[in-house]
Amino acid sequence: MNIKISPSMLASDFANLESELKKCEGAGADLIHLDVMDGCFVPNITIGAPVIKAMKRVCGVPFDVHLMIEEPLKYIDDFADAGADIITFHIESKSDTYETINKIIKCGCKASVSVKPKTDIEEVFPFADKLSMVLIMTVEPGFGGQSFMCDMLPKIEKLRAKFPDIDIEVDGGINSETIKECAAAGANVFVAGSAVFKSENPANAIETLKKNAGMI
Ligand code: DX5
Ligand code: ZN
User: Fold this and answer.
1) Nearest atom in ligand 1 to 174's CA
2) Which end of the chain lies in a sparser environment, N or C, as judged by fewer CB atoms within 10 Å?
3) How far is CA 80 from the centre of its chain?
4) Are 105 and 76 a contacting pair, CB within 8 Å?
């Protein structure tokens, strides 16, 4: 599987988004992870499509947009227009899953569905043939800097056993140690917020993550 590191901008310095994006680009980030929260689906509010559109002007790395919002279907056009390359929404959201996946694909983006820790991974199986990626949350969504939930590892294993070719992304508490367990279980796309931006040297941090995921 193609291993990818997706730094989460949620942990970056919002007063200096351009330089933070350039930092990731220079450090070999494969994707840029953008966490969109609406204060309803999760108890936190972050950024929306206009901010992502502005970020897109100054960054050439593909955008991995993670929608933690109640009604994703209503906003797919906006995020596609803002420059999202992959759009992930939650299967627990209020939008119809098939309709939302079809809309994302129609807008020219790669479709991905995410599951919260309490949701069974089997729930995504019926949609897998239309998906480029599945995002398995390894913390309760809403905030960066939480601890990795190791009891999510069997979900990764189950999904990988059933779908050998799909991208499996993990998000929450991923660091140079937890990434090893996730990679061994079958994940190949790794979101890292604190592990990249709270480190003294983000480029070294990304390199260590890649190495520990088995990429170099
Ligand atoms: C949490 C977000 C994550 C978050 C990860 O709801 O989906 O992407 O930024 O942050 P870390 O890597 O610090 O756990
Ligand atoms: Zn995320």
Assistant:
1) 12
2) C
3) 16
4) no
Give the CB-side neighbour count of residue 164, counting CA atoms within 13 A.
0
CA distance 191 to 193: 7
* Residue 76 CA: distances (Å) to CA of 26, 40, 49, 110: 29, 17, 10, 12
Query: What is residue 186's predicted lDDT score, i.e. its pLDDT?
Result: 98
CA separation for the pair 137, 37 (Å, rounded): 15
Catalytic residue list contains 171: yes
Q: Read off φ and ψ for residue 57, nearest 5 degrees.
A: -65, -25
Distance 64 CA to ligand 1 centre (A): 13
Measured distance CA(73)–CA(151) in Å, rounded: 30
What ligand 1 atom has the least distance to the C-alpha of 37? 6
Ligand 1 centroid to 159 CA: how many Å? Answer: 21
Per-residue pLDDT tens over the stretch 26-74: 999 999 999 999 999 999 999 999 999 999 999 999 999 999 999 999 9
Q: How many A from CA of 35 to the centre of ligand 2?
A: 5
Give the chain's residues under pLDDT 70.
216
The Cα–Cα gap between 28 and 51 comes to 23
Give pLDDT, residue 110.
98
Q: Is 38 a catalytic residue?
A: no
Residue 22: predicted pLDDT: 97
Tell me, what's the pLDDT at 1?
A: 83
pLDDT (0 to 100) of residue 215: 76
Q: What are 194's two structure tokens?
A: 């604190």
**Cα gap 198→143, rounded to integer Å:** 15
